[in-house]
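Format notes (please read before filing issues)

Several people have asked whether sequences and structure tokens are stored in separate files. They are not. Every record keeps both together, in the order shown below: the sequence lines, then the token lines. Line labels are part of the format and must not be stripped during preprocessing.
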Amino acid sequence: MTTTVTKAIAALLIFAAASAAQYFPPPDSAGGWRARRPRAQALAKLDQALETAKGATKHGGLLVVHRGWLVYEKYFGRGGREATPNGASSGKAFTSIALGILLGERPDLFPDGLDQKVFTPRYLPPEAFPLADPAKADIKLGHLLTMTAGLAGNNPAYVRGQAVQLARTGADGWEAMVDATALATPLWTKPGEGYCYSTVSPHILSIILRRLTGMELQSYLEEKLARPLSWGRWGFGYRRAEVTHTPGGGGIAIRPTDMLRFLYLLLHQGRWNERQIVPARYVRLCERPSPYNPHQPSYGLHFFNNAGGQVAGAPRDAFWFGGSGGYNFYVVPSLDLVVYRLAGRDAQYDLALTNVPPPPEGLPPYDGSRESWQQPRPEPAVTGEVLRLVTQAFR
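Then the structure lines:
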């Protein structure tokens, strides 16, 4: 073989490798994700992960993208490619990413970055003032992003790794995403001095974004994420008279293959094709423990991380989030892997509650196959087990 031919072949291989590395899926309307079957051994692990997921939720599915290939997509119950159920707290991660985009595009709005104190008239509406508790003036952007603002939420809370019980818990679910309720939530500790899971924190972030941009969170995400990533039908749940704005604390309602696009964006450090949509430095902050949360280091900027190895047998660089009803999504950079565990209760699939119209051809009828389902396993254990099983399939 001549030197010229050898060089040509080498160049083609380099080009092919570069093309593979640069793969980004077109919208589903134009063919969607490229797909291939995994090896038999990997398939067995993925089937096991799906059966594990079925034990924790009535409806759902499991979707896996490895090295840019959709290698697994199976559904059960009301789950399906066109399903857009209310993903509950999964939406918190989207609120975080929206703030990351804003930080990157308009750093002038936050001169002190994540150290910016945000309980001021610049960031919050007039009805937030005067502050009922002067200590709220010390709440920083980083505190809201890591739930260490001191705002009352759920039990247990944590102080330097030690669990404590709140004497008074805060609002959760849709109640936490009423502006007046979120802004009036009392402090259980001073800002930065403890962590508790508090849905009002990301909702307040959406209030800040709305005030600074003049856009609802949903409109902002439509412009910054949905269009560039070519999502199909999507929206937010928790639509009711009391929730007058996009619920920043949860409720994302998105097609499963479009959720994969969001995760794939994070896997690529915020880049989509040639466009840097989310600052790479912000995505890196989402992957790891945050200095704003020394109390529960596994919780960063509205993502959980495995840096401390709390999910034994899973890669330490995995990060994820989820929501009530059994939802989980995972990003594992070291394995070039993203995973979506679609889930949900009956009500979460009610189109009247998500306000997302069905596709023109309608949704496939539910066959009733899960009506006798009983939950045999607690959700927290399943979150880690699904991550372990899926990652074992590709190691």
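For reference, the curators noted about this record: Confidence is low (pLDDT under 50) at residues 4-20. The first helix runs from residue 3 to 21.
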